[in-house]
Structures are given as C-alpha cells and as structure tokens.
Design a protein that fits this description.
- The protein is α/β, with parallel strands linked by helices and 281 residues long.
- Helices cover 46% and strands 14% of the residues.
- The protein is built from 11 helices and 8 strands.
- It has a 6-stranded parallel β-sheet, with helices on both faces. A two-stranded antiparallel ribbon has the order 7-8.
- A hairpin with a 7-residue loop joins strand 7 and strand 8 (277-278).
- The structure holds farnesyl diphosphate.
- Farnesyl diphosphate (FPP) binds at residues 45-50, 63, 66-67, 70, 87, 89, 94, 105, 108-109, 112, 160, 224, 249.
Length: 281
C-alpha cells in the first residue's frame, strides 16, 4: 500500500466527504492533523457582510453563502481527524444589527438545526449549541436540546456558539461554581477559615464553561483580516494559537484549512515555559 493510501485508510472510518474534495487534499489534511496533533479548532467566521457588499448583494446573501462554507469546513475538519470544532455563529452583541439582518441570520441557523436533526447519523457528530439560548422561542430551544441529546452518542463534537459571549460565559460559569459550593454547604468565609484557600479554583470554573469537557482550542482561525477575538472563548483561548486569514468566510474552503494548519505547525508553543514545542505534543 502506498503512503497516500495509508493516510486515507487511517481516517477512513470517519470520512464522509459529501462536499466532494479530492482525496489528495483530504490525505494532506489528515497528515497535517496527525503531524500537528490538533484536537480542537475554533473559527470566527467573519466577512459575510463584506463578501455580499462587494457583489452588490444584501448582507443576508453573505450569511447564506457563509452557511455553505460552514457546513463544508465543519465536515472537512471532522473528516481529517479534528475531533472538536467550535464556530462563532451569533454573538451576544449581534442583536445590535438591523432587525431584518438578525432575523435572516436566525432563520438560517434554525433551518440548519432542523437539517442537522435529520442528518445526525449521516454526519456522526455531537451537535452542541453553546451560549444562552433562553431568548429563543420554546420550539427552537427544544430543537437545540433534542439535537444535543440525540447526537450525544458520537464522540466528535461540533460546538455552535449561539447568542454566545465570552464574558457572559465566565459570569455563568462562576455563578454555577458558587451555586455548586453552596449546595455542598461551603461558604466563602468557611472556606478561608478552614484554611481551604479561595472558594473557587480554576478547575471549578472550567467545569462550568459551556465548552466543558472539550479541551481548549489549539488554534483559533479568524477570517476576513481583523485581528481580534471579539469576546470569543476568552478563558479557553489563553494558549491557543491565533491565525488570522485574509479570506472572507464565504470564500473559505478546505484548502484554506490545510494552509492554516501549516501555519499552526510553524508556531512554537511554549505555554509560558522555555522549551519550544512545534504543534501539540
Ligand atoms: C460575521 O460576518 C458573521 C456572522 C455574524 C454570522 C455567522 C453565521 C454564519 C456563517 C452562518 C453559519 C451558521 C451556523 C449554524 C454555524 P459579518 O456579517 O460580521 O461580516 P462583515 O464583518 O464583513 O460585516
């Protein structure tokens, strides 16, 4: 068996490739993932509006096209062996957009969730919505809960950040952690007096993050050129490699994923130490 066939065979059990990319690209992606040890990739899918405006189209068309990129990229990442993928689909700040644009994005998202529900056993991924879903109508909330529950048997995870904000997530996690302590009958004062140290540890907070139990993202890709995190995964990004791609999200495809993993491979990850490691060890 040739080297290439070997690589394809290694990822075969997970490969769906319904988007029809070449086996060469797929094999290259799988080899890059193996070499880098990438487990978790997160995407800030930016540039839908600019993509549409540049074509004289309404911004909503950019979001529609962005959905095509998202579906292809999410499936490709799973196919090449990335176990956890997180995407920023709608932030707590996105409600500030014109009502018609917010409605269009939410309609695209709702349609996607319904489609995903029907495709669980085809996609073989655990669909998890992260964020505060309480502002959504009861039907949508139920759909999100059902999707999570019915796909929980799959060990690959797709986190979709919806009405998500990193600061809000931390406030939620801290409140939950304090609630947990209170249920255990531990108060802050008692904890100090008994010499148990601070009431909360990093571990207590981590266990209540929306992304728990996923490991933190190894790399966060933001498309469309801006170089900021925009309130995304504030806790989890502490040692993530940040990759800024100039490509607008609706143009972002599988080959761009490979290019970005190559960039990731060139980084030296030291986690505050001095010994450099390339990729994840
Ligand atoms: C940012 O581009 C994009 C959004 C706010 C919406 C993202 C949603 C999708 C791509 C659909 C995918 C859906 C799911 C379920 C994951 P922008 O409008 O801020 O672009 P701009 O910066 O060029 O204006």
């Amino acid at each position: 068996m040739s080297e290439t066939e070997n690589v394809t065979a290694a990822v075969e059990p997970y490969v769906i490739n319904s988007y029809g990319v070449s086996n060469e690209l797929l094999s290259e992606g799988a080899a890059l993932v193996r070499e880098s040890g990438l487990r978790h990739v997160a995407f800030i899918m930016d540039g839908n509006g600019r993509w549409a405006t540049a074509r004289g189209l309404p911004r909503e068309s950019g979001h529609k096209e962005g959905m095509v990129s998202f579906e292809q990229v999410a499936e490709y990442c799973a196919d090449i062996g990335i176990r956890y993928v997180t995407v920023y689909a709608f932030s707590t700040e996105n409600w500030k957009r014109p009502k018609h644009e917010v409605n269009a994005i939410l309609m695209i998202l709702r349609r996607y969730l319904k489609r995903a529900m029907k495709l669980i056993d085809q996609k073989r991924v655990h669909f998890v919505v992260i964020g505060d879903i309480s502002p959504f109508d009861e039907k949508t909330q139920q759909l999100i809960r059902d999707l999570d529950e019915k796909s929980a048997c799959y060990d690959r995870v797709l986190n979709i950040a919806l009405n998500y904000g990193g600061r809000a997530e931390l406030v939620h996690a801290m409140n939950e952690a304090v609630r947990e302590k209170a249920e255990q009958g531990v108060s802050s004062a008692e904890s100090m007096l008994l010499g148990m140290g601070e009431l909360l540890t990093e571990d207590d907070i981590e266990r209540h993050l929306y992304t728990y139990p996923c490991p933190p993202p190894d790399m966060i890709v933001r498309t469309a050129g801006d170089k900021r995190l925009s309130n995304f995964l504030l806790w989890q990004s502490s040692y993530s490699e940040l990759i800024f791609s100039p490509v607008l999200w609706p143009d972002y495809r599988q080959g761009d994923v490979n290019d970005n993993i190559r960039d990731f491979l060139s980084r030296q990850r030291r986690y505050g130490g001095v010994e450099s490691t390339v990729g994840v060890k």
